[in-house]
Amino acid sequence: MIYILYNAKSHNETSVESLEKTLNLLKGKEVTKISVFDISSYEDFFAKMKEGDMVYLLGGDGTISHFVNDVYNIDINVPVYYFGAGTGNDFMTDIKEKADENGYVLINDYIKNLPTCYVKGKSYKFVNGIGYGLDGECVAVADDIQSKKPGKAISYPVISVKLLLITYKTCDVTVIVDGVEHHFKKAWLAPTMKGRYYGGGLMVAPSQDRKNGKVSCVVIHNSRRLPTLFLFLSIFKGEHVKKVKKVSVLEGKEIKVKFSQPRSLQVDGELIRDVMEYSVKA
Predict the structure, then answer these.
(1) Cross-strand pairs, 221
(2) DSSP 140-180
(3) pLDDT per residue over 25-69, tens digit each?
(4) CA Rg value for the chain
């Protein structure tokens, strides 16, 4: 049996197309289509799997994030293939070179040994990264807009530019990497990354390797507003790391980030407000 898991609540055009494509690809085979919202227990779901069964997971970054947190402690003994739907899929962008000719990636190894983020007494597994600072505030502003005007189109670039040039205020940050403290003034952001991409295609950690057992904290600091705007534009190609006086990349197995003032944080898009610090174990 082949099980297709998809996000039934997504009305994104690429999500619909990915489901149709997968059904056509598997035409003539024994297939069961299931919405991820109809699965009450992934432990029970995978317990019934037999030899020869396989799973196709379709969705965007939100879908893969919820999936890995739901299944993390479950023994998955069947192949799980992923097809990246949605717009600006950072997980798929990062691993697309591993995709087969139809665009599917076997992800069993990618959803093991994931890092854990600890913040405000809770823990989260993540596949892409944590945004803390300007990037977290951008998600918070978008969330506020959606709460007031549900369904309104969100332009993250526009929000980011307004925050960067007008309202966002930097603060000091301490980053502790494997026991070694690093201090930075006027920090704009301090994300910690498992993959290279976040924010719909920003290559914030171009040297990060998903399989080396480490994570990377990228701190943008000591930069005025207008120069920082041009610095942000270079993130799409990962060229910001060349500005070594303004961008610091710290790699390790245990990372703790402490801001001098509370800021919003996002874990693979999951918003958490008023955060003073977070820690990560790779």
Answers:
(1) 187
(2) HHHHHHHHHSTT----HHHHHHHIIIII---EEEEEEETTE
(3) 899 999 999 999 999 999 999 999 999 999 999 999 989 999 999
(4) 19
